[in-house]
Design brief:
It is a single chain. The protein is α/β, with parallel strands linked by helices. The protein contains 14 helices and 13 strands. It has helices at about 15-25, 60-80, 90-100, 115-120, 125-140, 165-180, 200-215, 230-235, 250-255, 280-285, 300-305, 315-330, 340-345, 350-360, and strands at about 1-5, 30-35, 50-55, 85-90, 105-110, 140-145, 160, 190-195, 220-225, 240-245, 260-265, 290-295, 310. The strands form 2 sheets. A 7-stranded parallel beta sheet has the order 3-2-1-4-5-6-7, sandwiched between helices. Helix 3 links the parallel strand 4 and strand 5. The longest helix has 18 residues, at about 60-80. It is globular.
Length: about 350
C-alpha cells in the first residue's frame, strides 16, 4: 500500500504528483493520495484513483492551516497498516510523516523544491527549517532530489532523479503533436507556460515584446497556464499572444514541437532559483527545444555550450529582446547530437523505479 502525501490544492496543478500516480498505476501498486485545501472527495483525472482530501479551514491563517494539515496527517499516518510506504512530496508533506511514522512503515522524501531556500524566511527561520530538512533526509528510506546542486553532501539513501518527462507523457506528447500537425515555425515563437506571474519573467517579456515591435520583427508568443493576476490577464490579451488556457502536462510537452524556444525566467532574489532544475528544462531536453533563462541561474551553464540555452540578465529587457531577435533571424533550430540525449534516455518513471528497487521499497 502506497500513500502519496502532497500538500497541493489540486492534483492537476502538480506535475510531480501526476507523474508519480500514473507510474504507480502502471506498476500495479495500490495507492491513495492525501492532499490539502479541499473538502471534496473526487476522482483523479486518469483512472479514478481514490483521493483522501484533508480540509484546513480557509478562514485560518496559512500557518494555522498547516498545523491542521500536520495534525491530520500525523494521526492518519499512525493508523495505516504495517508495510505502508509514504511518498512525501516536499518538506511540508514529509515533516509530519518523518516524526510520526511507525517502525513497520517506510517513506520517501521527494525533496523537489528545497523549502528552506524557496521562501524569503528570516535568517533564523531558514536555519531551523534547513536543519529539519536534514533530519527528514536522514530518516527517509529514500531521499530524491532533482539535481546534484540541490543538496550539500552525500548519503546512501540519496538519489538524483532529473526532472525529465515520463516515457508515457513523452509518447503521448509526440502523438498529440503528430495528430495536430505541430512543426517548428519559421517565425520566432516563444513558449511561456506554468505560473504566469511577474516572478517568472512575464514583466520582462512584455517590455521586450514592446522593443521587438519597435524594431519591426515578427514574434509570436504561445502561453499556457492559469492567468490569475491582472498582469497575466493583461499579458494574454496582447496581439502577439496565443493563449491556450490551462492544458495537461502532455499537451504542454507537445506544444514544445510548435515553438522555437521556451522562456524559463526565475526571480534570482529567491535563493532556490539560483540552482533551479525545472521540469521545463526536462521537457526542452526531451524535445530538443532551446530555452531562454536568466543568467543568474547557475545550473543553466551546462546547457550553454551545446546551444540549447540562451541566457540574459534578469532585469535587462533589451538583452532579452535582442536574444529573441537572434532566434527570429536564425529561423529554425537544428539540434546538436548531444542535445537529444534527453529523448534517448530513460523516462522519469524508469529512473524512479530503479531508485525504489535499490532502496528495497519495491
Amino acid at each position: 500500500m502506497w500513500v502519496v502525501c502532497a500538500r497541493v490544492p489540486a492534483l492537476a496543478q502538480s506535475t510531480r504528483v501526476t507523474k508519480l500516480t500514473k507510474a504507480l498505476t502502471e506498476w500495479g501498486l495500490r495507492h491513495v493520495i492525501w492532499r490539502s485545501h479541499s473538502v471534496v472527495r473526487e476522482e483523479h483525472e486518469d483512472g479514478g484513483i481514490p483521493i483522501d482530501s484533508y480540509p484546513g479551514s480557509r478562514r485560518l491563517p496559512k500557518f494555522l492551516r498547516y498545523i491542521v494539515w500536520m495534525f491530520v496527517v500525523s494521526l492518519r499516518c499512525r493508523k495505516q497498516p504495517p508495510g505502508t510506504c509514504f511518498w512525501c512530496v516536499g518538506f511540508e508533506s514529509a515533516l509530519p510523516i518523518a516524526f510520526f511514522i511507525r517502525k513497520d512503515q517506510r517513506f520517501v522524501f521527494d525533496n523537489n523544491d528545497n523549502f528552506s531556500k524557496s521562501h524569503r524566511f528570516p535568517a533564523w527561520v531558514a536555519k531551523v527549517v534547513g536543519r529539519l530538512e536534514r533530519v527528514i533526509a536522514r530518516r527517509a528510506d529514500l531521499h530524491v532530489i532533482p539535481g546534484a546542486d540541490r543538496w550539500d553532501g552525500s548519503a546512501p539513501n540519496l538519489r538524483v532523479i532529473p526532472n525529465v518527462p515520463s516515457s508515457r507523457a513523452l509518447l503521448a506528447a509526440r502523438r498529440i503533436a503528430d495528430e495536430r500537425g505541430y512543426r517548428r515555425p519559421d517565425d520566432a515563437t516563444i513558449y511561456v507556460c506554468g505560473w504566469l506571474t511577474a516572478t517568472r519573467g512575464l514583466t520582462q517579456l512584455g517590455y521586450a515584446l514592446d522593443e521587438i515591435r519597435r524594431r519591426g520583427v515578427r514574434v509570436v508568443v504561445v502561453a499556457a497556464g492559469a492567468a490569475e493576476t491582472e498582469e497575466a490577464r493583461s499579458f494574454i490579451s496582447r496581439d502577439e499572444v496565443d493563449y491556450l488556457g490551462v492544458i495537461s502536462n502532455e499537451e504542454s510537452i507537445a506544444t514544445c514541437y510548435r515553438v522555437t524556444a521556451m522562456l524559463t525566467y526565475y526571480d534570482p532574489a529567491v535563493e532556490i532559483n539560483l540552482i533551479a532544475e525545472p521540469n521545463k528544462w526536462g521537457d526542452c531536453l526531451s524535445t530538443a527545444t532551446p530555452f531562454i533563462c536568466n543568467q543568474e541561474i547557475l545550473t543553466s551553464v551546462r546547457y550553454v555550450d551545446s546551444g540549447l540555452c540562451y541566457r540574459c540578465p534578469y532585469d535587462d529587457v533589451i538583452a532579452l529582446a535582442e536574444t529573441i531577435c537572434v532566434i527570429a533571424r536564425s529561423h529554425r533550430f537544428t539540434p546538436k547530437e548531444d542535445l537529444c540525449e534527453g529523448s534517448k534516455g530513460e523516462g522519469w518513471e524508469a529512473l524512479i523505479h530503479r531508485a525504489l528497487v535499490e532502496s528495497r521499497l519495491l
